[in-house]
Amino acid sequence: MTRPLTRPGKIVCIGRNYVDHVKELGNEVPKEPVIFMKPPSSVIGDGDAIVRPVHLSALVHHEGELALVIGARASFVTEEAALSYVRGYTCANDVTARDLQRLDNHFTRAKGFDTFCPLGPAEVDAALVGDPQTLDITLSVNGEVRQRGNTRQMIHPIAKLLAYVTSIMTLEPGDVLLTGTPAGVGPLVAGDEVVVEIERVGRLRNRVVDGLR
Ligand code: MG
């Protein structure tokens, strides 16, 4: 079954989790997962508009990602048990003001704007998705494929990510984890239609506008 998404209590994100994407941005392959957070106020749903904050940024990038939704309170989970804490999966776009990310020493401003976390179109039960490390993921802009990968290419697989994150903070039911993006990130401009499509999970479509909110 699928269920509508509700606003998560927190959104934990993994950066630099696909080798090809790490290289395209000129970064080193991380030995441990790189984690950061997006605020719940950044969430929008399928069909909503991504607003480019043109008062502060001139370079907004798309990042198509698999997201998971936590089903039970998770603290210090083992890799072996980790996937049993996942209630479902959905598509995500970790929208990023790349120019601000390069200026700042942290990701909060670059990734925290309102509308910068499209999620959807719905939460699909983990049982329906099966093995989450076998999923084709694509992102297209105006019908042209820009990102193409498979979740088997993750540097740190989901079970390891959950063990790592829950050794830092407790994850609560409804919390969301974004698992990183494959190569091919690039700019969005007003008028674009951006689609994240993940095998067995769904298709998340958003258009892009310029504005303050
Ligand atoms: Mg990302």
Separation of the first and last Cα atoms: 33 Å
**Main sheet overview:** 8 strands, mixed
Compute the number of strand runs. Answer: 16
**Overall average residue pLDDT:** 96
Roughly how many Å is the radius of gyration?
A: 16 Å
Structural features:
single chain; 213 residues; mainly beta; eight-stranded mixed sheet; five-stranded mixed sheet; 38% strand; binds magnesium ion
Structure description:
This protein is mostly beta strands and 213 residues long. It has five helices and 16 strands. The protein has helices at residues 19-24, 98-103, 108-111, 126-129, 158-165, and strands spanning 2-3, 11-15, 34-38, 43-44, 49-53, 60-62, 64-70, 86-93, 96-97, 117-125, 136-141, 144-150, 176-178, 186-187, 193-198, 202-211. Strands 1, 2, 3, 4, 7, 8, 10 and 13 form an eight-stranded mixed β-sheet that branches. It has a five-stranded mixed β-sheet with strand order 5-16-15-11-12, with no helix packed on it. The chain has a three-stranded antiparallel β-sheet with strand order 9-6-14. A hairpin with a 3-residue loop joins strand 15 (193-198) and strand 16 (202-211). Bound molecules: magnesium ion.
Brief rundown of the structure:
The protein is mainly beta. It has helices at residues 19-24, 98-103, 108-111, 126-129, 158-165; strands at 2-3, 11-15, 34-38, 43-44, 49-53, 60-62, 64-70, 86-93, 96-97, 117-125, 136-141, 144-150, 176-178, 186-187, 193-198, 202-211. The strands form three sheets. Strands 1, 2, 3, 4, 7, 8, 10 and 13 form an eight-stranded mixed sheet that branches. The protein has a five-stranded mixed sheet with strand order 5-16-15-11-12, with no helix packed on it.
